[in-house]
Amino acid sequence: MSKGALALLIHGGTDNWAPERWKTRFKSELSDRAVVSVVEDRFDPRTVQYAAVWKPGAGELAAFPELKVIFNLGAGVDAVLSDPKLPRVPLVRVSDEDLTSRMTEYVVMHTLMHHRQQSYLDACQQRREWAPRMQWPAKAVRVGILGMGVLGQHAAHALRALGFQVAGWSRTAKMVDGIDSYAGPDGLPAFLARTDILICLLPLTPQTRGLLSRGLFAQLARDGVLGGPVVINAGRGGLQVETDILACLNDGTLTAVTLDVFEREPLDADSRLWRHPAVKISPHNAADTDPDAIAAYVASQIRDFEAGRPLRNAVDPDRGY
Ligand code: NAP
Ligand code: GLV
Question: Residues 233-245: pLDDT tens digits?
Answer without folding.
Answer: 999 999 999 999 9
